[in-house]
Amino acid sequence: MKKYYGLFDLQLDDFKPGIVGTNHNDVEAIGAERAYTLSQADEESASENMTDKEMLEEYGYEVREITEKEYNQISNDQRSGLLTTTTL
């Protein structure tokens, strides 16, 4: 039976759009790269010496097993980043 994985954001209590796969290690590596890239804007950016798992833990992400239906929904999710609105 095929397994599916998604990157879960613990702070937002939701999966990150488009970050899914059928290999746990691949999703972990993609998530860690995303966390590292985002950390470069921080005053104290992440260390390149951290493992992928450590990087995800540090920035509040974890790889979770998901269903095929969830995989399809998350992989087709067009949301990206945070949206802000202004009322005039």
TrEMBL record:
Species name: Priestia megaterium (Bacillus megaterium)
Entry keyword set: Plasmid
Descriptive protein name: Uncharacterized protein
